[in-house]
Amino acid sequence: MGFATIPKSTTSARIKENSDIFNFEISKEDMIEIEKLNDGFRIGMNPNEVYERPEIILE
Fold it and tell me: What are the boundaries of the signal sequence (predicted)?
């Protein structure tokens, strides 16, 4: 499942600029640094488990 973004713009040039999201590359070095940010910490409940484990609502 992905996310849809709705850029706020009224000028054609800005709308085109906002939709041009695939014109960049992330280096291997940057990806390594980005991966370091994932410490496994999550906040919130998994919506798929709420009805299977009602006790987590009270935690």
Answer: none
- Give the distance, in angstroms, between the CA of residue 26 and the centroid of all CA atoms in the same chain: 16
- Is 42 a member of any domain? yes
Is 51 part of a structural domain of the chain?
A: yes
Residues with pLDDT less than 70, the chain: 1-3, 42-45, 47-59
DSSP 18-52: HH---S----HHHHHHHHHT--S---S--TTTTTT
Count of structural domains within the chain: 1
